[in-house]
């Protein structure tokens, strides 16, 4: 647990479904939910979350999969993928369908906003969870959604590579909120095949409300393993503008 020294462990229960997940929290100021990538809450994920804390925010890390803290590397990723692929909270392949875990994440965001106040909370997902921030935007409490290399559904074929991991009803809400002024920040390496063409879908659906940060190259994890300072700076500025 050395990577999470100084973080307070808790649990959040969605009162509507009874679903419970462990959380780790640190900081003061407006709330930001940072949802880790596969294989889980790695030291690199914690390091990024610490940067958000230092920028003046209360960060909550939900534990949805993997060990705590999780090892990095392909072995840990394969072990975690084997577990999540049979977990019904996550939609891995279906088109035009929101992952069920979004309901719990929205509940977490509402609770955090009710406690901390302010204009709302930020939400950031990475890779496997990248699109979850968009799904959380269906709830009005989320006013700063960030999609870091969103990779669900897995980009197997053109249709899945373009899909946003949202039901038509949820997409309609997201589009209405975007049209009303809620911007969505997206980050990716421009040649990352895991993202597919969903950045183009987001531009088509949200127009100028979708802010694209596209880095050159074939790398993947914009904020962690393949971290670029430009990407981190853009995320922190986005949170400051929306939440402070």
From TrEMBL:
Keyword Iron on entry: no
Classification via Pfam families: DLH (PF01738)
Domain of life of the organism encoding this protein: Bacteria
UniProt-listed InterPro entries: AB_hydrolase_fold (IPR029058), Dienelactn_hydro (IPR002925)
Gene Ontology molecular function: hydrolase activity
Start and end residues of each Dienelactone hydrolase domain: 28-145
Full protein name: Dienelactone hydrolase family protein
Keywords: Hydrolase
Organism: Microlunatus spumicola
Gene3D superfamilies found in the cross-reference section: alpha/beta hydrolase
Kinase as UniProt keyword: no
């Amino acid at each position: 647990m050395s990577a999470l020294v100084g973080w307070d462990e808790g649990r959040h229960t969605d009162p509507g479904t009874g679903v419970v997940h462990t959380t780790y929290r640190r900081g003061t100021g407006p709330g930001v939910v940072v949802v880790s990538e596969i294989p889980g809450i790695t030291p690199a994920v914690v390091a990024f979350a610490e940067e958000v804390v230092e920028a003046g925010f209360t960060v909550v890390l939900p534990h949805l999969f993997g060990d705590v803290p999780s090892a990095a590397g392909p072995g840990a990723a394969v072990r975690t993928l084997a577990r999540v692929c049979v977990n019904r909270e996550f939609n891995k392949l279906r088109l035009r369908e929101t992952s069920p875990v979004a309901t719990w994440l929205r509940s977490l965001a509402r609770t955090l906003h009710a406690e901390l106040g302010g204009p709302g909370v930020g939400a950031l997902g990475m890779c496997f969870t990248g699109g979850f921030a968009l799904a959380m935007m269906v709830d009005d409490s989320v006013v700063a959604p960030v999609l870091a290399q969103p990779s669900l559904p897995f980009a197997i074929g053109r249709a899945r590579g373009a899909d946003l991991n949202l039901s038509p009803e949820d997409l309609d809400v997201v589009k209405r909120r975007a049209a009303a002024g809620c911007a969505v920040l997206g980050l990716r390496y421009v040649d990352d095949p895991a993202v597919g063409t969903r950045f183009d879908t987001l531009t088509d659906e949200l127009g100028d409300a979708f802010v694209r940060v596209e880095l050159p190259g074939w790398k993947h994890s914009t904020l962690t393993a393949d971290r670029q300072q430009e990407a981190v700076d853009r995320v922190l500025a986005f949170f400051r503008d929306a939440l402070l």
